[in-house]
């Protein structure tokens, strides 16, 4: 039996569904990314299990045993991103951008020497396990102990938002929109860009580019801890002879890819480099069985919203920061 004609156009890196006949006459479906193929055999690599240290499975399949084959979406499908509750997504994202974490019931106290609001606020989402007034006092005490301003990150319009406002806490900073998309919809039929590199370890060049993007006077070792964070995470980039000109960071949790620190040097903008980096991180996540992608955008940044909407992102929820009234 010859191989299905659909395989003639197969290219390495594409995701395929291949039905293979077993020796007993039954058949099984294999889903994975094509590594290579010759005239007799093809090799597929299955997804990595992000909760395991095992390597991704690789299947060698004789072409004569292939019953049918079809090209598959670049990532698994799934329910609409809106089916994930805001509280759950916020808890999945908590380790994506954190240095020190301390639980307060279902809330999280966070500190990172004041570098970024998200890493230095209490994620006040869920049940703190004690009256909100007592929880608010704990937030203030934790902030004082870590020499950071007391802040609570709340989902806009949530019961936690209302309860803290009843205690006199008020909005500070501009609100943030969390945008989301199915990873398969984001990646679509876009081919891998050979200019994009994705590393699972933080490199000196990526770190130096990030510092150009976000200048700071924070202890460099602490910023490194924040960027390295908790695995699995990856660092996408595009480089030229001048060095890296576009970067982005991805973090994977619960089937969700969180993209942050997406930046292009000003003299290389409007060339699609940031989008290419995002696609590269998306492919990395898809091979780890991710199904959705989210990112966070300043609610007032109309330009960024328009750009992400063109990529298929829609509003999932909004969050904001509350601070207690001055004593």
Automatic annotation (TrEMBL):
This is Acetyltransferase (GNAT) family protein. It holds the Pfam family Rv0428c_C. One of its GO terms (molecular function) is acyltransferase activity, transferring groups other than amino-acyl groups. InterPro entries: Acyl_CoA_acyltransferase, GNAT_dom, Rv0428c-like_C. It comes from the Bacteria. Residues 193-327 form the N-acetyltransferase domain. The keyword Kinase does not apply. Keywords: Transferase. SUPFAM superfamilies: Acyl-CoA N-acyltransferases (Nat) (SSF55729). It comes from Microlunatus sagamiharensis. The keyword Transferase applies. The lineage of its organism: Bacteria, Bacillati, Actinomycetota, Actinomycetes, Propionibacteriales.
């Amino acid at each position: 039996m010859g191989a299905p004609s659909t395989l003639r156009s197969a290219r390495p890196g594409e995701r395929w569904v291949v039905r293979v006949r077993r020796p007993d006459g039954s058949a099984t479906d294999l889903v994975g990314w094509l590594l290579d193929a010759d005239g007799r055999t093809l090799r597929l690599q299955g997804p990595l299990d992000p909760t395991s240290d095992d390597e991704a499975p690789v299947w060698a399949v004789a072409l004569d045993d292939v019953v049918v084959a079809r090209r598959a979406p670049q990532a698994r499908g799934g329910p609409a991103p809106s089916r994930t509750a805001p509280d759950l997504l916020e808890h999945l994202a908590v380790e994506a951008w954190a240095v020190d974490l301390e639980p307060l019931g279902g809330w999280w106290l966070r500190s990172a020497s004041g570098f970024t609001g998200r890493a230095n606020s209490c994620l006040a989402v869920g049940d703190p396990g004690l009256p909100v007034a007592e929880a608010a006092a704990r937030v203030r005490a934790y902030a004082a102990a870590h020499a950071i301003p007391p802040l609570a990150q709340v989902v806009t319009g949530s019961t936690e938002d209302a309860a803290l406002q009843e205690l006199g806490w008020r909005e500070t900073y501009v609100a943030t929109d969390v945008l989301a998309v199915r990873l398969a919809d984001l990646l679509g039929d876009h081919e891998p860009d050979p200019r994009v590199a994705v590393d699972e370890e933080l490199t000196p060049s990526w770190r130096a580019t990030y510092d150009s993007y976000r200048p700071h006077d924070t202890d460099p070792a602490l910023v490194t801890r924040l960027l390295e964070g908790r695995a699995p995470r990856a660092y996408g980039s595009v480089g030229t002879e001048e060095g890296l000109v576009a970067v982005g960071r991805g973090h994977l949790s619960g089937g969700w890819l969180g993209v942050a620190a997406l930046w292009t040097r000003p003299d290389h903008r409007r060339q699609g480099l940031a989008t290419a980096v995002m696609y590269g991180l998306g492919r990395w996540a898809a091979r780890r069985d991710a199904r959705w992608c989210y990112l966070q955008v300043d609610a007032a940044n109309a330009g960024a919203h328009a750009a992400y909407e063109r990529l298929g992102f829609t509003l999932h929820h909004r969050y904001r920061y509350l601070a207690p009234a001055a004593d």
